[in-house]
């Protein structure tokens, strides 16, 4: 290599993007470990959780509501919800007033699997982030700030 590649950061540990990527990979690996026995991916778990959260406040949750809650691509949400429907974890029905929309509901099987998954994931998260101790709340606030700033890009 004739030329040295120039980096803005002096080392990988100075790069927030690199660190976030590394942290995300490790966190996803831990989540996969607890979700695999429940036949769920992290994306499926996120969509089921969003559905449950939204259903606590609204009886007519749509695919778009779930996509907005998760910041996931709408087409991807549709595909993953079809998979969850095949697994009998959700039902998708025509919306009562908007014929273009689908109303999504957890099935009894979906509720059981999701409740088990939530317990496992919350325990895994507590274990994963334990070293932050009293700084966890500020870490969460920083993440929310970054999400809010960047979610429309």
Automatic annotation (TrEMBL):
<dbReference type="GO" id="GO:0006950">
    <property type="term" value="P:response to stress"/>
</dbReference>
<feature type="domain" description="HTH marR-type">
    <location>
        <begin position="1"/>
        <end position="152"/>
    </location>
</feature>
<dbReference type="InterPro" id="IPR036388">
    <property type="entry name" value="WH-like_DNA-bd_sf"/>
</dbReference>
<dbReference type="GO" id="GO:0003700">
    <property type="term" value="F:DNA-binding transcription factor activity"/>
</dbReference>
<dbReference type="InterPro" id="IPR036390">
    <property type="entry name" value="WH_DNA-bd_sf"/>
</dbReference>
<dbReference type="Pfam" id="PF01047">
    <property type="entry name" value="MarR"/>
</dbReference>
<protein>
    <submittedName>
        <fullName>MarR family transcriptional regulator</fullName>
    </submittedName>
</protein>
<dbReference type="InterPro" id="IPR000835">
    <property type="entry name" value="HTH_MarR-typ"/>
</dbReference>
<dbReference type="InterPro" id="IPR039422">
    <property type="entry name" value="MarR/SlyA-like"/>
</dbReference>
